[in-house]
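Entry 0007
Protein: Helicase ATP-binding domain-containing protein
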Amino acid sequence: MQPFIHVERQGQSSAYMPVNGFTAVDLGYQQSDAASNFVNRMDDPAHAKMYLQLFEQIWTDPDKVQDVTEAICDHIESVYQENSPERIYFTMLYNIFHDFLEDVDEDVLPNDLTGYQDTLVWKKLFNYQKDAATGIINKLETHNGCILADSVGLGKTFSALAVIKYYELRNRAVLVLCPKKLADNWRNFNSNLTTNIFAKDRFNYDVLCHTDLSRTSGESFGIPLNRVNWGNYDLVVIDESHNFRNNDVFRDRETRYQKLMRKVIQAGVKTKVLMLSATPVNNHFTDLRNQLALAYEASQRP
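Output (structure tokens):
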């Protein structure tokens, strides 16, 4: 039924239809650009009374009308209710991120049976780092790749170590690929040293440098580079991953980026890629695209 208005004034009845709203334009009191916005007025008492009877017929039928007074009162009460700042904050977060909650699947959440929550490195994490580590594992299981782009000083290394330990507990081979200046820091945590605060966790990941991708002889931290099985790592953690932001093509040589892609990502077992960088974008968004391509290529492996 088309919406209408029945008006009684000084004993005279009139009906207006169709009425699509209560603005001046919808009521026909103001012109508009809409070609179909016509409101008809019927002053014939018989016609006007017919519309009124139709309204009364619907209004008094309990099967067609629902009393919403209580629901409206509850809504008004909730609008004017005093809410704590914490509740308002969480409500805002939910409305911003509720679409992403659908992506959370128990099948790709960390497996508690591995005992990763009992490790020393996990217990050392702040809550925000635990959330980050859980999210990283979720992304690695879902997309085979993830970038942790926290700012300097927020503990990306510790978050990554928690992820590494999770995969080590699942008997996965892990490689940390880092700049040479950061190698000692990573090697400290997988060595039996008094300076290793996570010695009880017994990390056993390998550490190699970005430049080792281009070397074919010699050793790097006791690992013979001519015999490295680059394609046998289940997880590769790339520290300072923005160093692989360029994917330039040369006729006469293979770039470090291309060697990483060929030797580690495309060869051997299906590899998950965790990238750490405080500055994933340096000059252009292609910097980020090239890094994401490492994870994308890994996800396309059969």
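Curator remark: The first strand starts at residue 5 and ends at 9. The chain has a mean pLDDT of 87.
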